Amino acid sequence: MKPVCRIFRAEVMGYCMGVRRAVEATEKALLDSNIRPVYTYGPLIHNPQALERLAESGVVVVGSGYAPLPDNFSGASVVIRAHGIPPEERRELQRRGAKLVDATCPRVLSSQKRAHIWHEKGYTVYLAGDRDHGEITGIEGYAPGCVVLENREDAEHLENYPDRAVLISQTTIKQSEYDEIAAVLAAHIRDLVVLNTICPATLERQKALEVMAAQVDGILVIGGKNSANTQRLAATARQLCTHAWHIETPAEIPQEAFLLERIGITAGASTPDEIIDAVEQAVKKGYS
To answer: How far apart are CA 76 and CA 34, in angstroms?
Structure first.
């Protein structure tokens, strides 16, 4: 006999403000523009299912690893994703005749501006985050020569430390990771400015997961396998709960999950509401 299942949803999960804003900007461009296709410079969000839906609506992804940039966009709309882009890439899109739709997250824009300001002041700029993440790549363009630190070990193994520096975080890293990097730098740098650039939604999503984890036997973390913030959520879930799985779709729900009495659901910042709802319905169906 199957156990009776109770499903718990984390109070904060799914689309963050920046991602929702970028998706809505792209959908508006599809409605407003008479020129097809509508382009996004790089994948709009780190969720394959959402990207597939946008492609079906007439959105084409261009940039490194995707379709090549047209020689002339001829006024077609090009959406800059929430992660932002370096200034030189923005200028190149404009040179090729793109009508830019800037969906850079306001918090990321703030990080870009602050990195530039501190760079101009002569401070060494350290960026805490994932080296190949689009947000980090974009900020690097505003502070040439900045140094990316992915973890505490990177900070510990720097060849030398400057007299003055500023530390800026990727908006989606864990506070504990940022604090560890900051502590290492503070021990070596006399004048260190640590900016608070982690998005509050990231912190709220992690805290909501921690609260939910205390009430459940297993956790389903929903989101793209290439989503950095979803990967961090999944890592936290595994630390908090014996049974935790990172899935993208209902089809990936493991059979083991249906043997548990209390299942928790959370999702990364790029996970659409409809996928979260579909996973919940699949869990309910699996117990029926």
So the answer is: 9
